[in-house]
Structure formats: C-alpha cells, structure tokens
Amino acid sequence: LADSGKLYVEEDDDDPITMQLLVLQYGMDMQHPLSDQLDAADRARLDAAAKDAGVAGGAATLNAMKPWLAALTISVAPIVKAGYDPKSGADKQLERAFRAAGKPVEAFETAEEQIKFLADLPPALQMDLLRNALDDYAKGPAEIKALVGAWQAGDTKAIAANVNAGMREHYPKLYDVLLADRNRNFARQIAGLLKQHGTIFVAVGAGHLAGRDSVQAQLAKLGIKTERVH
Fold it and tell me: Lower Cβ count inside 10 Å, N or C end of the chain?
C-alpha cells in the first residue's frame, strides 16, 4: 500500500447530491407502479421487507421506484440497520488515505455508468435483480454477519457461496451481467494498468474477487498470474 502511487476503485463519485440526482433521473417511475409488476407473493415479500428494514415511507416509497432501485434499497437498508456504516468501507478508507498522502484516486466506472448499467437492464433482469434482493433479505441478519466474518477471514469460498452462488443458480443471466461480464471488464483494465510504470493499488468489492468467474480468474485467462499475499 505504501509503495503504491495510485489507487483504483470501482466507481468514482458517491457524493450524496450527485447520487440523489442520478437516482431521481434514472430510478423513479411514477407511471408504472412496482406493485403492478409483481405477483401477490412478491408484493407481500416486498411489503414485509420494506417494513422490517425501516424504509422511509415503506412500500409506498418502493412502489414509485424502478425495480433496480427498489432492489438496491432493499439490499442496503438491512446493512445500515445492522449498524454498518457505508462510509467506513475498506474502499472509502483507502480513498481517504491516498488523498491525504496526495496520491491520485481513479476508478474503473463512473457513478453515472454504474447507475445507467442497472437502469438499462431489460425489465425481466431488473425484476430478477429485485427478486434476488428479496431472496437475500429473507436470509436475515445472520447472512450479513456471516459475510462480514468471511470477508475478515479472507474466506473467498464462503464469500462466493454467500454472494454469488444463489444468483448464479437462480438468475444466471443476471449473474453474467452483474458479475462475470464486469469482472472481465475489470481484468481488461487491470491488464492495461500493468503496462504502465509504477505500482497501482486496486480495490473492488469482495464479490468480484471470489468464485469461478472472479477478477483473478479473468486475469488468468489473459495470461496474468496473481498471488495471494494475505
């Protein structure tokens, strides 16, 4: 870390005002209520999750969202409710450390690209994303605790089982779009960075570093060897 002259993270800007504007632009749909797109069973699951997670405005708030945004809200709400602070993530701490040292921070994707990536998903995949989020939510707080424990232990097999396996099994097209395809893109960009001089520190989400389609696996396909050091 000390030897690295530059940091690369997943996305470049999570300023609250910027994110709010992007969400309003790409994530709301008053003309097509979410409840009209769900069957009775999924409506009940969404209502229960909204209530349990303490989403402001409850199911009515989610009802005005596009499926991808409702999925994201359902995914993040229980993490915050469990006491975890998104601003304290490893990537955020790394960003602060690099900036304090006067070192540049760059990203593989922009915030708008990430939002549009979700917003441009076909309707069927957006619904799969929401159902996957509801599936994960139903596992309860123990799932979050298990994932944090796996991350702390560096247990990539457990991370793959908790984060990736369910999506790959039940929503394979969504898995390809959200994880496998993006991992290939990250690997291609990393391959380009390796042609530069100097040392670069790369920090992406744990789910991208676990499983058979991980960034490391994609790098191996490009002939780039990786070594675990911790």
Answer: C
